[in-house]
Design goal:
Helix content is 77%, strand content 0%. By secondary structure, it is an all-alpha fold. Helix 1 runs antiparallel to helix 2 and helix 1 crosses helix 3. The protein is globular.
Length: 263
């Protein structure tokens, strides 16, 4: 792999993981289309959908891990952004649900899976539109949430994410914000930890049964290790209103892209 290709792959990893750290998503909804189209459009490489899926999975794993370390630094400063109770409760539920969804996906057609994904993206936008603005001070106070409901909802997200092969963070965060009423910054930071847990199985599966395009993956991950901490640092410094509307724009763009591809 020459220097130009390495720079492009690292750049894609940096961009995808920046949004991962900024909004608490896995970053695949940004990195996947970039990996699929940019190298091919530039005439430097062509990666199949399966190869892109593999590279993207590793990107999500390392981007979320890098973001977690940055948010842990915020925790040590008294911010307590990564909530261990939220991560343990919702993380285990989404893992179990994802495994069940993976089995269920074998009984669904490709068209049905695509419509599930599209419907989920629209639901995420609706939930974000219903999210009311909150005061900045709310982020610094303790909060409570309905743990059984959180476990049930994250299990459902896990089933759907297992069906469509996505991390599920793009719907998980709207649920945390709009239904569970978890503060924005806590939801974003904790979601990264949940995404990391859910990506472990995917990475293990790719290593065990998939063919990993090693050079492309290494440089994409290298960019991710830079982009995710940057996104996390920016996220801690901008207003929650910016984060809320930024996530809404990102989710709306994702929903439009999915449905345009189906129609």
């Amino acid at each position: 792999m020459d220097l130009y290709v390495a720079v492009v792959m690292a750049g894609i990893g940096l961009v995808g993981s920046f949004f991962s750290g900024l909004f608490g998503i896995g970053g695949a909804i940004i990195a996947y289309p970039l990996l699929l189209f940019v190298p091919n459009a530039l005439g430097i490489a062509h990666y199949s959908g399966q190869e892109v899926s593999t590279i993207s999975m590793f990107q999500v794993f390392f981007a979320s891990l890098a973001g977690i370390f940055t948010y842990r630094g915020q925790n040590k400063k008294g911010g307590q952004l990564i909530n261990k109770s939220v991560v343990a409760n919702m993380g285990m539920s989404i893992l179990i649900g994802s495994a069940a969804g993976g089995v269920l996906s074998a009984y669904l057609s490709g068209e049905a899976i695509t419509y599930v994904y599209g419907g989920l993206a629209v639901l995420a936008v609706i939930l974000m539109l219903g999210k009311k603005a909150e005061g900045e001070s709310e982020e610094q106070h303790s909060f409570s949430y309905n743990r059984p409901l959180a476990a049930a909802l994250s299990f459902g997200v896990g089933i759907v994410s297992g069906i469509v092969g996505a991390g599920g963070a793009f719907i998980l965060i709207p649920i945390m914000l709009s239904i569970l009423k978890i503060p924005t910054r806590v939801a974003i930071a904790s979601s990264l930890a949940i995404v990391f847990l859910s990506s472990i199985g995917g990475v293990a599966g790719k290593l065990a049964f998939g063919s990993v395009p090693l050079a492309a993956t290494i440089f994409t991950v290298a960019g991710s290790l830079i982009g995710a901490p940057l996104g996390s640092l920016v996220s801690a410094r901008v207003t929650t209103t910016f984060l809320r509307y930024g996530l809404l724009v990102l989710l709306t763009g994702t929903a439009i892209k999915i449905w345009m591809g189906m129609l």
